[in-house]
């Protein structure tokens, strides 16, 4: 008992603490042990009519006396210093609290205000601040309202009893959990009255209409229902909402045939669409599932000779023949046809639903079969024949057997209707089918099952002629008539990644005349030094490079044998290259080695031919403008000077100046060094450049001589020519010649031997008068750059020249020859 009493005390203490906590959570009131505020109850009614200002309470504090006048009261918070403003005020001397205007509780349910008492002189607080809430007392000043004052819903005619679509949602903004906000929903009126409609309140804020019975679209297709929401306040307030129900037509009327009997005719063994149409009448709304008709056979279509369809526009039934009837078996067919709607039939009687109706209307359609000339009939519509491919021509494939109940079989003629490869011929009288070409199993006209199809026809002499057909399926048996070959004649070997590439082979024949294959190299031992096949047996072989190969193209001859050792020989083109990170050759790679094939040689020849063509065109256009530049001296003269030259000097002419349009610049340079002998060296630099706006013509010549201690001398000559014209070409030529005296003696000796000793005639020359000489200044007045050039070296030509002179001088004197 003591334990139970102790437990009860603990529970009571916890409950007391919980209540105290709730009070503190609502607002913390000022707690004082000795001093306290004293105030009357503050009660404000919503929408108080006044008059205002109206005293609602008075404040007291036991610390001060009302008569000393040294203090003043102060009010702050909502309604005073915070929104909404100017709702409350306080008398500073008496502490009288006043309301200044009416308050709408739905706008402000409470006001949080604070009271203070201050010393008038020091303006310091005499006591702690007092804060509390002023709650506004609710009155029933707001009626319930619907979320929609007017609701419109569609209701199908065949909807079963129960809830109607659409919910009613309502609310009351007065204080919740009071009679002012408690609402009751009710149905005020209904037009028309059948079927019975009611309202069911789901909870305090939702309701839904219900009905019992059924709707009849033909009688009433629109309902108006008024619903009221009323609260329980004093006085009670209410509002209404209008619900409009639109009834949607359903299948409440079955389709009915306009006529009960129909007739049609069709030729035997003939198919035809739309041989008969029949109309129905339906009172439901057109183009709806309750109006659209579905036609069906009740009987007499066991062999599925006929088909029924519905015209979507007219709702008529359409009868078609999809498989012809034989007149010898059937001359008249009677069909019984029924009709129904896409939507099940719904019947409402006196606004009360009836059991599910299964009524459907029906008609009889009589189809007359007209006899026509029947085509000849083959004993078998499809004949299967087996033959080996590539057999000799003239082989008999098939001779048909036929019968015809309407015509004489001896007057039937046969034709080929289908022979895609033109491999066979047919005898028009007997129908015998023979081969005219060898039949290849690998032909594209043979299907994947190795079958070649031939269609023949038999035409009788009836009126009109009729044709019967027969299909001949020739199954071709394979022989080993194809050699194995490579799937791809070229492969890529990515030498930077692998040294092996797989080579796939195939054979158009089938097993056992195809793979697996045996791979080997063709003739030539060089292949085995560079390549290896591993594996060399199977559907594909592995080609392995035995050593690192330069990048380029390689031809590898291969021999591929099938299971019957039939060999095919092909050359595999292998491209060895750097693939980088991919599987194809990189376009911008630098090849380690490039082989020049037939294509490369062809490109070179083509380029050479184009160059010759351009050269020919160039000479044809500019050849006449070129003049040969003769040598200044005869060969062998070298440093010897001719003094008997009597040719006229060139006329003094100024340099031409030509101005042309600027063009693009081109420069060509070449350098040539030739060694004609150990002591003779020639060096030539040539520059051709095309540019614009520059015109210059100039020639520079430089010559010097060097003497050696051995009695021999050497001299060099520099010739520099610059020529540019305004056709966009600049030419610069420099020639360096180094010649030794050592070879000069030999040259003179050869020239002396060439002189004819016997001269029968006068060797003098006659020159024609060529006019006055040039008016240019004498060449003697010209100054030379190198003044040291003279002819002193002729005084000492060396011992060899002296020996030659001693030999030749007497002879020359006898012949009066002078140097």
From TrEMBL:
Major location (coarse): membrane
Residue ranges of domain Cadherin in the record: 62-146, 147-257, 258-378, 389-486
One function term, GO molecular function aspect: calcium ion binding
Endpoints of the signal sequence: 1-18
Entry keyword Cytoplasm: yes
Claim: ATP-binding is one of the keywords in the record: no
Domain of life, source organism: Eukaryota
Alphabetized UniProt keyword annotations: Calcium, Cell adhesion, Cell membrane, Cytoplasm, Glycoprotein, Membrane, Metal-binding, Repeat, Signal, Transmembrane, Transmembrane helix
Pfam family, one: Cadherin
GO CC aspect terms: adherens junction; catenin complex; cytoplasm
Compartments, as annotated in UniProt: Cell membrane; Cytoplasm
Transmembrane segments: 593-619
SMART domains: CA
Membrane topology, record value: Single-pass type I membrane protein
Example GO biological process: cell-cell adhesion mediated by cadherin
Its biological purpose: Cadherins are calcium-dependent cell adhesion proteins.
Full protein name: Cadherin-like protein 26
Organism for this UniProt entry: Channa argus
């Amino acid at each position: 008992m003591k334990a139970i009493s102790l437990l009860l005390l603990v529970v009571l203490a916890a409950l007391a603490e919980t209540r105290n906590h709730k009070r503190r959570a609502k607002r913390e009131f000022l707690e004082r042990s000795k001093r306290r505020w004293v105030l009357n109850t503050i009660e404000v009614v919503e929408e108080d009519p006044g008059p205002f200002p109206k005293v609602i309470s008075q404040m007291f504090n036991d610390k001060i006396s009302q008569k000393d006048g040294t203090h003043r009261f102060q009010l702050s918070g909502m309604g005073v210093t915070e929104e909404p403003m100017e709702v409350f005020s306080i008398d500073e001397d008496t502490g009288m609290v006043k309301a200044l205007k009416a308050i709408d509780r739905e706008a402000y349910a409470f006001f949080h205000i604070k009271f203070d008492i201050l010393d008038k002189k020091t303006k310091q607080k005499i006591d702690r601040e007092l804060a509390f809430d002023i709650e506004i007392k609710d009155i029933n000043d707001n009626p319930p309202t619907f979320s929609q004052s007017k609701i419109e819903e569609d209701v199908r005619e065949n909807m079963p009893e129960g809830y109607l679509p659409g919910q009613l949602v309502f609310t009351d903004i007065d204080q919740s959990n009071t009679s002012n906000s408690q609402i009751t929903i009710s149905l005020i009126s209904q037009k028309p009255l059948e079927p019975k409609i009611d309202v069911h309140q789901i909870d305090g804020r939702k309701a839904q209409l219900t009905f019992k019975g059924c709707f009849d679209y033909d009688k009433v297709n629109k309902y108006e229902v008024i619903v009221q929401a009323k609260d329980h306040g004093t006085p009670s307030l209410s509002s209404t909402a209008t619900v409009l129900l639109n009834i949607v037509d359903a299948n409440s009327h079955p389709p009915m045939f306009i006529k009960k009997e129909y007739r049609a005719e069709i030729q035997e063994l003939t198919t035809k669409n739309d041989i008969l149409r029949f109309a129905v009448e339906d009172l439901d709304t057109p183009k709806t599932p309750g109006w659209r008709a579905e036609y069906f056979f009740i009987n007499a279509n066991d062999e599925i000779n006929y088909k029924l369809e519905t015209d979507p526009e007219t709702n008529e039934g359409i009868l078609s023949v999809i498989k012809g009837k034989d007149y010898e078996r059937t001359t008249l067919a009677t069909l019984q046809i029924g009709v129904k709607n896409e939507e099940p039939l719904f019947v409402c009687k006196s606004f009360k639903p009836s059991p599910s109706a299964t009524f459907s209307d029906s008609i009889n359609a009589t189809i007359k079969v007209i006899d026509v000339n029947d085509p000849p009939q083959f004993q078998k519509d499809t004949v299967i024949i087996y033959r080996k491919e590539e057999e000799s021509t003239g082989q008999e494939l098939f001779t048909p057997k036929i019968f015809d109940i309407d015509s004489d079989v001896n007057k039937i003629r046969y034709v080929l209707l289908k022979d895609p490869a033109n491999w066979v011929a047919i005898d028009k009288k007997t129908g015998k089918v023979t081969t005219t070409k060898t039949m290849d199993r690998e032909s594209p006209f043979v299907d994947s099952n190795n079958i070649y199809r031939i269609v023949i026809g038999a035409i009788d002499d009836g009126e009109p002629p009729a044709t019967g057909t027969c299909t001949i399926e020739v199954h071709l048996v394979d022989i080993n008539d194809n050699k194995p070959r490579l799937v791809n004649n070229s492969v890529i070997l990515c030498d930077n990644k692998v040294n092996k590439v797989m080579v796939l082979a195939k054979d158009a024949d089938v097993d056992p005349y195809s793979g697996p294959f045996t791979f080997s190299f063709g003739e030539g031992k060089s292949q085995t030094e560079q390549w290896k096949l591993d594996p060399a047996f199977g559907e594909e072989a592995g080609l392995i490079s035995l050593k690192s190969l330069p990048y380029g193209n390689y031809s590898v001859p291969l021999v591929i044998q099938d299971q019957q050792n039939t060999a095919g020989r092909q050359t595999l083109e292998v491209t060895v290259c750097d693939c980088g990170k991919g599987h194809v050759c990189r376009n911008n790679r630098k090849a380690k080695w490039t082989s020049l094939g037939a294509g490369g040689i062809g490109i070179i020849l083509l380029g050479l031919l184009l160059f010759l063509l351009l050269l020919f065109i160039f000479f044809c256009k500019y050849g006449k403008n070129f003049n040969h530049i003769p040598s200044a001296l005869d060969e062998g003269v070298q440093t010897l000077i001719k003094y008997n030259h009597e040719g006229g000097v060139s006329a003094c002419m100024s340099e031409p100046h030509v101005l042309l349009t600027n063009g693009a610049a081109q420069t060509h340079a070449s350098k040539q060094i030739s060694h004609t002998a150990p002591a003779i060296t020639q060096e030539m630099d040539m520059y051709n450049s095309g540019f614009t706006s520059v015109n210059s013509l100039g020639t520079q010549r430089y010559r010097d001589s060097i003497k050696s201690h051995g009695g021999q001398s050497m001299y060099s000559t520099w010739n520099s020519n610059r020529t540019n014209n305004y056709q966009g070409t600049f030419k610069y030529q420099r020639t360096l010649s180094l010649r030794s005296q050592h070879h000069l003696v030999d040259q003179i000796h050869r020239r002396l031997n060439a002189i004819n000793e016997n001269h029968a005639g006068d060797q003098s020359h006659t020159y024609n008068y060529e006019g006055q000489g040039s008016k240019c200044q004498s060449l003697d007045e010209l100054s030379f750059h190198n003044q040291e050039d003279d002819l002193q070296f002729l005084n000492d030509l060396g011992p060899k020249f002296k020996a030659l002179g001693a030999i030749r001088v007497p002879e020359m004197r006898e012949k009066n020859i002078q140097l």
